[in-house]
Structures are given as structure tokens and as C-alpha cells.
Amino acid sequence: MERPTSEDSGVTAEPRVLRRDEWDTWYGTLIRAFSGVPESAEVLALYRELTQVDRSIGVWEGGSGGDGEGGACVGTAGAFAFGMTVPGGARVPAAGVTMVSVAATHRRRGVLTSMMRRQLDDVRAWGEPLAVLTASEPAIYGRFGYGAATFVLNAEIDTSRVRLSVPAGTDDVRLRYEEPADVIDACEEVYARLVPGRPGMLARRPGWERLALLDPESGRDGASPLQCVLARRGGEVTGYARFRVRPAWGSEGPRGTVVLDELAGLDPATEAALWRFLFGIDLTSTLAVRGRPVDEAWQYQVSDVRRCRPELRDALYVRLVDVGAALAARTYQAPVDVVFEVEDAFCPWNAGRWRLSGDAKGASCERTSDPADLALSVRELGSAYLGGVSLGSLGAAGRVREVRGGALAAASVGFGSDVAPWLPHGF
Ligand SMILES: CC(=O)SCCNC(=O)CCNC(=O)[C@H](O)C(C)(C)COP(=O)(O)OP(=O)(O)OC[C@H]1O[C@@H](n2cnc3c(N)ncnc32)[C@H](O)[C@@H]1OP(=O)(O)O
Fold this sequence. Notes:
Bound molecules: acetyl coenzyme *A
Subunit structure: Homohexamer; trimer of dimers.
Number of strands: 21
Helix content: 10-25%
Number of helices: 9
Binding site for acetyl-CoA: 100-102, 108-113, 136-137
Organism: Streptomyces tendae
Strand order of the largest sheet: 1-2-3-4-5-16-6
Strand content: 25-35%
Largest sheet: 7 strands, mixed
CATH topology of the largest domain: Aminopeptidase
Active site: 141, 427
CATH class of the largest domain: Alpha Beta
Radius of gyration: 23 Å
Keywords: Acyltransferase, Transferase
Mean pLDDT: 95
């Protein structure tokens, strides 16, 4: 089917960098594309502050000036400057693609495609080897080379029936209610210490810690304001949980729900103490958790995992913007020496053959004219990059072609990660 070009559909403007004074209009376009329900003033103010305008683009149509000035904003996209942990613990610059929208009046005319083109060219020019995002719909970004790389666990735990067995040392952990804002620095310190240990975690940029405290009444869905419990061991802060409680009463009595927002612990005993606390809050019978790591310990401590109703969900999508730099930035849990034949129609600078040699200490990845061992698209490399999706599984799905026998299994082991990659919060 022939598609109108951006020119014959009336969208003539190319994406251009946002100006600070255009933010309200630009953000208004985004909000409308997400249904138009207004955000609270505090949420709006924080996002205005966090937006990196010099890394944000918009498409403006019908303005008087040559650059579309004064026209309508019909497309938006931003790219936070993040540092993301990769296997081995290095922090790699990653553009956090965000706030993507196209006005419904201008959909399916190539506006998103033009923004993705501009943005990936920019990310490359900034020297950032990775672009990452969470997708409103998984079908959108594969064509631009993004692959689903991390998954999260959601659960609705029936705490009236499920018991938790905790490891030794759990009773040494002391918990205390605190005002969330009063202990934000202590919580951030815990968070920062966890970042290098898990691929996919993002070092928080200044100001991001305040996102976790935003608590507009409209977002509570009948639950309490945000509550916080701080964990200490031997006087030192070792973890925290932020949560809400939604009360409910049935004919049989109380059946409230604890809704977990965030939980972090520096050691297994602290984590277990926090989970035990959440399981046991009086007048509740459900613990609702979303977006947890897929390998989190509580799953192996419960008496009945089925009554926890676990559910997997795709989370972080990864795009290798510079294949060589990205693959060389992580380590490999078993030695790898493999030539990839990479297909990348959207970022052709990545296409062709690359030799990756590496182990648990480091890696190099260079262009080569040697014959290929494995053939795949950049999207599969993105999926496998953090060790959360195995190259072997992608091969079994027909998405990686093994050219040299044995190469797939060897590379698959090397790319794995002992700790499941995890993105703790959206952006
Ligand atoms: C990281 C984030 O911010 S995720 C948030 C993404 N934004 C939203 O979901 C808000 C609501 N939706 C929108 O604003 C728009 O529909 C967008 C941004 C998803 C798509 O914008 P458009 O300008 O319509 O996309 P564009 O015309 O460039 O489409 C390019 C291709 O992607 C396809 N496509 C676009 N959106 C979708 C979708 N939601 N599902 C499946 N395919 C899609 C198009 O059909 C087209 O395919 P083709 O090249 O085979 O013809």
C-alpha cells in the first residue's frame, strides 16, 4: 500500500530542537495524545523541570516562520541523558527516549519516523552507544531497532493464605515508619548503592528522586497517601519500602490491599524483613506489587507461589546505537569470540560484520571481514544485550541464524547474566 509522504500529507516541517518557552504547548500535545486527562500541578512542574529541552524535539506545522514558529505542535520526543548499568557493572551513557507522541490529526504520516530518524542521529552524534525506552505499545519500536530486553514481575499476593519463610538474620533488622520526604536522602543512598549491581538500573539524575515522592490524590485510587518504612541493621540504614494501603471491608471482615510502590534492600535479610512487614499489615489480605525484578527472592520464600498470581510484563527496550561501543562496554560471563553479521536498515552505520571477543574481565568489538558466525538484526542484539533474553532462545525463535555450528550456544552462555536485568522505574 502506498503511504502519503510527509509532504503530500501537509506535514512539511522536520523535527527541530525544543525551546524552553515552547514547553507548555509541546507537553500539551503529549498529554492529549495520552487521552488528555490533565496531570496535577506538582507532576507537571516536576516534568517541566526534568525535561532536557536541548535533547527534546518537536514537529511544528503551519507556522509563519521558516522553522514553523507560531504553528501547531504535532509531534514530541525527548531523550534523557542516563547512565545505565550493563553486565559487568559499567555505567554506559544511554539516551532515555521519552515523551513520544504525534497528534491524532497527523498520525500514520511518518511524523514518528521522522522524529526517530532525527533522534537516533542525535544520540549517535552525542556519542551515546545506547538508546532505551519503555513502550506504550510493544508494536511501535521494533522497526526502529529496539528489542525488549528486560521484563518485570507483577503479582497480587493473597497474604491471608500465603506464608513467607525468611532467611537467618531477618530478626536483626529494625523497621520504623518515617515521613517519605524526611528520609529521601537515606533512601537515595540505598538506591545508588544498588545501581552498579544490576544491569538495566539507571543512575538517578538530580531531581529524579522527587518523582518517587509525587503523591497527587488523583493517583491514589482510594488508597492512603504514600507511606515509608526505613530498615536499619546495626544502626545503619539498609533498605526502605514505599507503599500505600487501600482499605476495604467485606461481609467477612477487613480485606484491604497493600500497594507497593518501591522496595530496596542492601542485603537478603533486609529485603526479607521488608517483605514480611508488607505481608503482615493488619486489616489487609492482598499485597499488590508491580514492576519487580523477575528473579526477586520472595518468590522462593512463599508457601504458595500460585496464590501470588505472578505475571510477566515487557519493560525496557534497548537499541544499540553504536554496536561496537555497546558490545565492548559490557563483560561476558563466559569467554566469547564470535563474528556477528548485523542487519540494521534504520542505522546503517551498524550494519555488517563485527568481531566480539570478551570474557568476565572485558571485551573488544571491532569491524571485521572474517566470515560470520551468527546473523541477526540489531533488534535481537538489543534484546540480548543486558542478559535478560538469551541468544539461544532468539535462535530457537528463528531470530538469530547460526552460520557456524556451535557458535550460538557459546555466545548465548557468554551473554547471560547471573542477576536478571531490571528497570526499577519508568521515565
Ligand atoms: C517512549 C514513549 O514515549 S512511548 C509513547 C508512544 N506514544 C503514544 O503511544 C501516544 C499515542 N500514539 C501516538 O502518539 C502515535 O500514534 C505514535 C507516536 C505511536 C505513532 O506516530 P505516527 O506518526 O503515527 O507513526 P508513523 O506514521 O511514523 O508510523 C511509522 C510506522 O509505525 C507504525 N505504527 C505507528 N504507531 C503504531 C502503533 N501504535 N502500533 C503499531 N504500529 C504502529 C505505522 O503503521 C508505520 O508503519 P509502516 O511504516 O509499516 O507503514
